[in-house]
Design a protein that fits this description.
Blueprint: H1 3-14, E1 25-27, E2 30-34, E3 37-41, E4 44-47, E5 50-53, E6 56-60, E7 64-75, E8 78-89, E9 92-103, E10 108-118, E11 121-130, E12 139-149, E13 154-164, E14 167-178, E15 186-187, E16 191-195, E17 199-203, E18 206-211, E19 214-223, E20 227-239, E21 242-253, H2 255-260, E22 267-278, E23 286-295, H3 299-302, H4 313-316, E24 319-329, E25 333-344, E26 355-369, E27 373-385, E28 391-407, E29 412-427, E30 442-454, E31 457-461, E32 464-483, E33 498-508, E34 512-523, E35 528-529, E36 532-540, E37 543-552, E38 557-567, E39 574-584, E40 589-599, E41 604-613, E42 618-629, E43 634-649, E44 652-667, E45 671-679
Antiparallel strand pairs: 1-4, 2-3, 3-6, 4-5, 5-7, 6-7, 7-8, 8-9, 9-10, 10-11, 11-12, 12-13, 13-14, 15-18, 16-17, 17-19, 18-19, 19-20, 20-21, 21-22, 22-23, 23-24, 24-25, 25-26, 26-27, 27-28, 28-29, 29-30, 30-32, 31-32, 32-33, 33-34, 34-35, 34-36, 36-37, 37-38, 38-39, 39-40, 40-41, 41-42, ...
Length: 680
């Protein structure tokens, strides 16, 4: 009988009264017994869902297995290694000395002084955890102890320090997170910011899994100098083709802040409902979209707990816009029903705010007729009303018919279009002005002819290719009639007679590319040329040149010029960066910006950027940062920026200075933090 197999049978007898009974097979190169101990050389233990290997081992009193020397445990989708293992059953295993745990599903490893398997859990002491390469990991957590819950795929660590390389950067009394992407109830990452006007902002979301298809996030927030609030976000999926989001909350200002800045409201509250669904009535044909909002002022949106950068874009638009849209679409046409409701927060009431409920749209995709004609179109019907009793109805039509044909054996292509624009608006409710009567109907009719002649020419020259597309477009407004123009509800399409010349060129080789688009219209009505436009791009390996140029014949000057020269060495050792110059006459801008980068390796680099205002002769901003990306387990970008904004005061021009600290750290695949601190 084979020696290894004989030992296996002996092992069954030895374990006949143990918890491993009828579940274990033991193989070894040799074995001998001394009293109650059986000694094994090169043992292999097979049991339910697992396998153990070691250099040597022993069986004590038929109930205990001790393995030593390069011990390896294979079970399910993980591997556990160490120098010594003690097992009483498959659910009570301790492994010691240089413990290494690796989860193949999540690509996660854990090092420890000791690991103990109890049921489906693994408890560790002296824990080091990461998803990077175990040899000199870019990041790792070190903890005094921890527990890995295998079935839940969840890791808890106690007395935790986060290291980037060898540098400790964060200490936490405990840390717990999932090692898969299933949703779990718990705290989400906080949002932190600072403003001299509103103080420290701190928002702490708490995430609750309410069911398989719903969840709720509760976020208390505080701005230490302004007040506090609480916000709720309920998400749901009611079908495989739809999902929705209900967000609501309230923020309360402190009396001192409310009185100091003379605010219209002390309490800011509102709600928002978002819903998207496909396959509403027809498979793969229709969709529904809703975004319905209400707030007593726009400060409600600015006070969102995630607005830790104090972004004031929420305060610029004082109109709150809600939408409810339905779209049915085929490969030939589309029909849409669009509804828009506005709340103008600048007005004491909303009685005079025009609402668009509904707008009906029919869109005809281009249809080919007799191989040389294309016809398409758009028809819109609008119903306008106010809660004050005013109402109006309008319709617009856009109808282009195009004839197209190749000429000279496809050397040239010709398109000739006849396009009709039409619109009419009539008031039918209460008077819209103080005269006691409504204005007469407004309308417009426009007929435009467009002739386009162009060519697509491509030729190869050995290792490179030249493509050129010259084009001439003649636009003629044959007829226009506008009656009682109503620009708010019935804007007239701006169309001018013009002859536009355009030429596009592309030259492409193995490691280089040149692209250029040059265009300019001639305006017969005023007998003058329109703006000359030229967009140029050049690439050669890592070197690039970009130039955008605009020239106005009317102003007889360059109105816009942007040029950028760069050398992209990102994540390749060496120097890189760019310089750029912007001149914008109409917006009175003239800036010079330069960026310098130095990459010490394929993973890590430093960068510096500075921008100068050449009109006002001051530094707009400068910033310095460090970037890292090894693409497998760690990405981070940390920067410090100082920006200045000129402010005109009685004593002259002064500057507001913002100090901005930004960092984003992603521990792949666990997630990360993206945070910005603005010190004003």
């Amino acid at each position: 009988m084979n020696r290894k197999r004989l030992l296996s049978l002996i092992a069954f007898a030895l374990f006949s009264t143990s918890p491993l009974s009828a579940k274990v097979e033991i193989f070894a190169l040799s074995a001998h017994r001394e009293g109650n101990i059986t000694y094994l050389q090169k043992p292999v233990v097979l049991y339910k869902n697992g396998e153990l290997q070691a250099e040597r081992g022993k069986i004590i009193n038929r109930r205990k297995i001790v393995l030593e020397g390069n011990v390896t445990l294979f079970r399910d989708n993980y591997v556990l290694k160490g120098n010594r293992l003690v097992a009483y059953s498959d659910k009570n295993i301790t492994i010691e000395n240089n413990v290494f745990f690796y989860d193949q599903k999540f690509l996660t490893w854990i090092k420890g002084d000791m690991g103990k398997l109890k049921g489906n859990n693994v408890a560790f002491k002296g824990v080091e955890f990461s998803t990077c390469c175990p040899y000199k990991p870019e990041w790792h957590f070190y903890a005094n102890s921890g527990v890995y819950y295998r079935k839940r795929r969840y890791l808890k660590l106690y007395n935790v320090t986060l290291y980037l390389g060898k540098a400790p950067i964060l200490y936490l009394p405990w840390l717990e997170f999932p090692t898969d992407k299933r949703r779990r109830t718990g705290l989400l990452r906080p949002y932190v910011g600072f403003s001299q006007r509103e103080g420290l902002l701190y928002s702490q979301p708490f995430f609750i899994v309410t069911s398989q298809h719903t969840d709720l996030t509760i976020t208390p927030t505080i701005r230490t100098l302004r007040g506090k609030g609480i916000f709720f976000d309920f998400r749901f999926m009611d079908s495989p083709y739809s999902h929705g989001d209900i967000f609501f909350g309230e923020f309360w200002d402190k009396n001192e802040y409310y009185n100091k800045y003379d605010l219209a409201n002390k309490e800011h509250y509102g709600w928002e409902f978002k819903y998207t669904r496909s396959r509403v009535f027809f498979p793969d044909r229709d969709s529904l979209y809703a975004d319905i909002k209400y707030a007593n002022d726009v400060d409600y949106f600015y006070l969102n707990p995630k607005n830790y950068t104090f972004d004031k874009k929420y305060l610029t638009d004082k109109v709150i816009d809600s939408k409810l849209n339905y779209l049915y679409q085929t490969n030939r046409f589309a029909v849409g029903v669009y509804n828009q409701y506005y709340i103008d927060t600048t007005q004491p009431t909303n009685r005079n705010t025009w609402q668009t409920i509904p707008q009906l749209n029919y869109h005809q995709f281009p249809v080919a007729l007799w191989n040389h004609f294309l016809i398409s179109g758009d028809l819109n019907l609008y119903n306008y009303w106010t809660s004050g009793g005013q109402s109006a109805k309008s319709g617009t039509l856009y109808l282009p018919i195009t004839f197209y044909t190749p000429l000279l054996n496809h050397f040239l292509n010709l398109k000739f279009s006849q396009t009709f624009y039409g619109g009419r608006l009539a008031y039918d409710g209460d008077p819209v002005d103080s005269t006691g009567t409504n204005p007469p109907p407004a309308s417009y009719k426009i007929w435009v002819s467009t002739l386009q002649v162009y060519s697509n020419l491509v030729k190869g020259y050995g290792s490179w290719v030249h493509a050129i597309t010259p084009q001439i477009t003649i636009t003629s407004k044959n007829y226009q009639k506008v009656e009682d123009n109503a620009p708010d509800l019935l804007p007239v399409p701006p169309i001018d007679n013009a002859i536009t010349f355009q030429i596009y060129q592309l030259l492409e080789g193995g490691n280089w590319e040149i692209e250029d688009t040059l265009s300019r219209p001639y305006l017969p009505a005023s007998k003058e040329w329109g703006d000359l436009k030229n967009d140029f791009k050049f690439k050669l390996d890592k070197f690039s040149l970009e130039d955008k140029y605009r020239y106005s014949a009317r102003d007889k000057k360059t109105t816009y010029h942007y040029i950028k020269i760069g050398y992209n060495s990102e994540f390749e050792p060496g120097w890189g960066g760019y310089i750029s110059h912007l001149y914008d006459y109409r917006n009175n801008l003239k800036t010079f910006t330069y960026n310098i980068q130095y990459w010490v390796s394929h993973k890590k680099g430093y960068y510096w950027e500075e921008s100068l205002d050449l009109n006002q002769h001051y530094i707009k901003y400068w910033l310095f940062g460090i970037k890292f990306n090894n693409k497998r387990c760690l990405k981070y970008n940390i920067s410090y920026k100082e920006a200045r904004t000129p402010v005109l005061k009685e004593s002259g021009i002064s500057y507001l200075k913002d100090r901005i600290i930004s960092f984003s750290i992603e521990l792949i695949p666990l997630g990360g933090v993206n945070q910005t601190f603005i010190l004003k």
